[in-house]
Design brief:
The complex is a heterotrimer.
Chain A (H helix, E strand, L loop, with lengths): L6 H16 L5 H28 L7 E11 L2 E9 L1 H24 L6 H20 L3 H19 L6 H32 L4 H11 L5 H18 L7 H4 L5 H10 L3 H9 L1 H5 L2 H22 L5 H22 L2 H28 L12 H4 L1 H15 L6 H15 L5 H26 L13 H16 L14 H6 L15 H25 L1 H9 L1 H11 L4 H20 L3 H23 L4 H21 L1
Antiparallel strand pairs in A: 1-2
Chain B lengths: L1 H20 L3 H21 L3 H25 L4 H10 L2 H24 L4 E2 L6 H9 L3 H21 L9 H18 L1
Chain C lengths: L4 E2 H21 L3 H26 L3 H31 L13
Helix pairs in contact in C: 1-2, 2-3
The chains are: A mainly alpha, B mainly alpha, C mainly alpha.
């Protein structure tokens, strides 16, 4: 079965090619069939191949398939090689399965859009790029997928390009992630220069021999790779593009946040763990960035009005948890949280898209309200996703994955009480803004009349995702109850075990505190937004709190900061640079050419008589020369 | 018999001069015919009897008939003559004539500088000509055949009656001009 | 009847006829006259070729004349077709009316 591995990325690519080349000629139903069908088939192949792979897990736990040689330069040859191990299988599963659900949803969601084929072409290419990224066996091919993901995010965020703000959001996403990409490219050069290869498995085996632990080179290399991950995963300080990326259609947001794009950074760090394991500094940086991001994004989400922006900031915050886990060395916990997060975040975005669609493109939560009875399916599925996001104890998948991270953030070898404190307060904030979002959207008075309800093609993916959002958590139960470690056992051939500290406090206490934090957050939101909304008003009247609110609302002023620090100086310099000497030279050449052209074009008078005169004069000159000589 | 050569040469020159100065196309054509016949005479005297034959049959015969046919078809007569008369002023023909004279003077200088050379022309028979044509110049003959073929097809294509077709740039220009014209009229 | 011809006289005659042809092409306004003048120039060059062939007693000069003849026939047929077309479209044979292709 393994030999059909190539079909997984090939199907979306085929879908993209068909839609891009012949999309205009196809009818809407066949566009939907090709667009969603290619991903569904890909998911099916993933199930088959993945099942066969897991059933007969090979000793080295990697299956590679070399398709062809991309190019060869001297001793270096880059191959198009797909490599499947458990880590990439988890990602491929999430990408294709959730991607397929999102595509099915999109067939109904984008029904009225006139660029139906373009949408599905870009979505298919997006999935294809992400699959190349996670299946690549060498870093160069991975970089190809990496850039393809960036390109597709640009295409899809700016999908409704008629509005300039959408185009700006797309450009912003592309430019900001580009910064990380450039750093990552330099990181790849460094790896190649030191290791002489870009094949990931080779790097993993020789990493110990070529790099001293904690040496400067390995730290710099790791940090450069990390910078690429930070850009794609929207972590501090490159997080500013993600909230603006909400300009795209809701399924795009779901795809970016759940299955593709933002998880690329997590994958990169997990995949290159051999390098990161060698540098304590790099791991500390990852952990600190993750912790800072989750706190910052959580507080920002608390103040947003736009339902999709709340979700965007919550994604940044949740990815922060994953980075925190990676930083402290809890590799499997990070991947587990990635998978669970993919389910509930895709669900939340798709449900939010359904709500927005039904409310005539109303994004503001304060203008929603009272949807609990009017849109029951969306309500119950959204609730399932929200429970998971808030990590409500025992019944939600989010609890099991997040609790693991909280636990490791103290007890893992790289962990510390401070990180744990931050993560715990992050859990409280997450619960608070999730409750706020739920109450504002589904309870209270209805502010906007509900239009048409979402059809079956939209609700079916919601229900499936809701089931997974609840059940996915039971793949991995904490050590103290159940001690069921299916998921991490599965991943251990690829990712190392989490190293623990010497003395470990009791795990019960942590779980209790985490549960209390969640419940506290829920209660906080319930109190302020349901029981006594008036108190919010009184809080708002407080000048200090109001300015804090403004500060948080603007995403901690990062956009303004970058504008002052980078954009304006750049524009200033480019304005100065606009009229430099070099340009003068070239405009001079261009001008001279233009003048000469004008001069010569006079001779092109259209009068045959003058042309013959010219011929005669030429003949006279030639004969004259002959006489002279 | 040199006298025959010089007479024929003079006739060719004078007839040609008349061709380029006549106002009426038919007159010019008749003078051209005379000039061509004089050419045929020259060819004969130079020993190229077959060329002389072709000159009369094809040039003075076929090609000139084509010309006359077109002139008659377009009914070019007095009006054209009048237009040419108005146009052909010394101011117009002086410059080109001087240029041509300079060209000829240079040619003269070059020819005369190569020294005198008198000979009795030998007759080159049609047989020799045919052998040369179909042996060394076979490719040339084939190319000439293709050229004639292309000319026939091209003439048939170009000669069809068509409406006035302007290139789109010219059409736009013309429309603009017409608009301008209308504006000034209004 | 033995004639003695000097080469330079024949060549000069051809040159003179050629120059007259050039003058004709340049000074005339009517396209038919221009085409006639081109025929004169073709003939003049043909004369030069024949003279050269006769000087050396070789058939090549006449071969060239035959080619010129073929070329002239082709040129005239196309040229006359063009003249007809121009006359139909512009109702005039004035070369100065055909200045559309200026730069």
């Amino acid at each position: 079965m393994d030999k059909y591995l190539w079909l997984i990325p090939a199907l979306p690519l085929g879908g993209f090619l068909i839609l891009a080349l012949a999309g205009k000629q196809l009818s809407r139903s066949s566009v939907a069939l090709v667009g969603a069908g290619s991903i569904c088939l890909s998911a099916l192949v993933t199930f088959v191949v993945g099942g066969a792979f897991l059933a007969g897990l090979p000793a080295n736990a990697v299956y590679t398939q070399t398709l062809w040689t991309w190019f060869e330069v001297d001793a270096f040859s880059a191959k198009i090689t797909l490599s499947l191990d458990v880590l990439s299988l988890v990602f491929v599963f999430v990408i294709t399965f959730i991607g397929a659900l999102i595509h099915i949803y999109s067939t109904a969601f984008m029904e009225a859009d006139r660029d139906y084929a373009r949408f599905f072409a870009s979505m298919n290419l997006f999935v294809f790029s992400m699959l190349v990224l996670v299946l690549a066996d060498n870093l160069l091919l991975m970089y190809l997928g990496w850039e393809g993901v960036g390109l597709c995010s640009y295409l899809l965020i700016g999908f409704w390009y008629e509005q300039p703000s959408n185009g700006n959001a797309a450009r912003k996403a592309f430019t900001v992630t580009r910064i990380g990409d450039a750093a990552m490219a330099i990181g790849l050069f460094m790896i190649f220069q030191q290791a002489g290869t870009l094949v990931i498995s080779d790097i993993g085996t020789i990493a110990d021999t070529i790099w001293q632990p904690n040496s400067t080179t390995v730290t710099v290399t790791a940090l450069l790779l990390l910078a690429g991950g930070l850009g794609k995963s929207a972590q501090l300080p490159l997080q500013t593009w993600l909230p603006d990326a909400m300009a795209g259609p809701s399924p795009v947001s779901a795809l970016i946040h759940a299955a593709t794009m933002v998880t690329a950074g997590v994958y990169l760090v997990a995949r290159m763990h051999a390098i990161f394991a060698l540098s304590e500094t790099a791991r500390l940086v990852i952990a600190v960035i993750g912790a800072a991001t989750l706190l910052l994004a959580g507080l920002t989400a608390l103040t947003q009005y736009d339902i999709k922006r709340v979700l965007a900031y919550s994604t940044i915050s949740q990815i922060g948890y994953m980075f925190l886990a990676l930083g402290v060395g809890a590799w499997t916990a990070a991947i587990f949280h990635f998978m669970v997060h993919a389910f509930f975040k895709a669900l939340l975005f798709l449900a939010a898209g359904a709500i927005i669609e039904s409310l005539h493109h109303e994004h503001n939560m304060f203008k929603m309200g009272g949807l609990k009875d009017k849109m029951p399916v969306v309500f119950w599925t959204f609730l399932a996703g929200a429970l998971s996001l808030a990590a409500v104890p025992l019944i939600s998948a989010g609890f099991y994955s997040k609790d693991q991270i909280l636990w490791y953030s103290w007890t893992a070898s790289g962990g510390s009480p401070i990180l744990w404190m931050v993560a715990l307060s992050g859990a409280l904030i997450t619960a608070a803004y999730t409750t706020r979002m739920m109450i504002l959207t589904f309870w209270g008075e209805a502010h906007t009349p509900v239009g048409h309800l979402p059809g079956r093609r939209m609700t079916l993916p919601l229900v499936v995702l809701a089931v997974f959002s609840i059940l996915a958590g039971f793949m991995e139960l904490p050590h103290n109850f159940g001690h069921f470690t299916l998921f991490s056992d599965l991943l251990h051939p690829v990712l190392p075990e989490t190293a623990m500290r010497a003395e470990i406090p009791s795990e019960w206490l942590f779980q209790l505190l985490a549960a209390l934090a969640t419940l506290g957050g829920v209660l906080l939101g319930y109190h302020y937004y349901y029981q006594q909304p008036a108190r919010i008003e009184s809080l708002r009247r407080n000048a200090a709190l109001a300015s804090l609110h403004r500060f948080w609302f603007s995403g901690w002023g990062f956009d303004a900061l970058y504008d002052r620090l980078l954009v304006r100086p750049f524009i200033f310099i480019s304005k100065i640079n606009k009229s430099d000497v070099t340009d003068r030279l070239y405009t001079g050449i261009a001008g001279a050419t233009g003048e000469m052209y004008k001069l010569l074009s006079r001779t092109q008078s259209g009068s045959l008589r003058w042309y013959i005169m010219g011929l005669v004069v030429g003949a006279i000159l030639i004969l004259g020369i002959q006489i002279m000589l | 018999m040199e006298i025959a050569f010089y007479v024929a040469g003079t006739v060719a020159l004078v007839a040609t001069l008349m061709v380029i100065t006549r106002h009426n196309p038919v007159h010019a054509l008749l003078y051209l015919n005379v000039s061509l016949l004089a050419h045929a005479m020259l060819f004969y005297l130079l020993g190229a009897s077959f060329a002389a034959l072709l000159e009369i049959i094809i040039y003075a015969g076929a090609i000139m008939v084509l010309f006359i046919f077109v002139v008659m078809l377009l009914n070019l007569g007095k009006e054209t003559a009048e237009q040419e008369r108005k146009w052909l002023k010394p101011k117009v023909w002086m410059g080109p004539t001087v240029l041509a004279a300079v060209l000829f003077a240079e040619f003269l200088a070059l020819v005369l500088s190569s020294g005198q050379d008198a000979y009795s022309p030998a007759v080159v028979s049609p047989r020799e000509l045919a052998v040369a044509l179909y042996r060394e110049y076979l490719i040339g003959v084939e190319l000439a055949a293709m050229l004639l073929m292309a000319a026939v097809v091209g003439a048939a294509h170009i000669g069809r009656h068509k409406k006035l077709v302007l290139h789109r740039f010219l059409r736009e220009e013309k429309e603009k001009e017409e608009e301008k014209h209308e504006e000034t009229v209004l | 009847m033995k004639t003695t011809v000097s080469t330079e006289v024949v060549v000069l005659l051809a040159g003179l006829l050629f120059a007259l042809g050039i003058v004709g092409v340049i000074i005339r306004k009517n396209i038919i006259f221009m085409l006639l003048s081109v025929e004169i120039m073709l003939n003049a060059s043909g004369l030069a070729f024949v003279a050269a062939g006769s000087r050396w007693g070789q058939p090549d000069g006449q071969v060239m004349f035959v080619f010129i003849l073929a070329m002239a026939a082709a040129e005239v047929s196309i040229g006359l077709a063009l003249i007809l077309q121009i006359y139909h479209q512009h109702k005039s044979l004035d070369i100065d009316n055909l200045k559309e292709m200026n730069g």
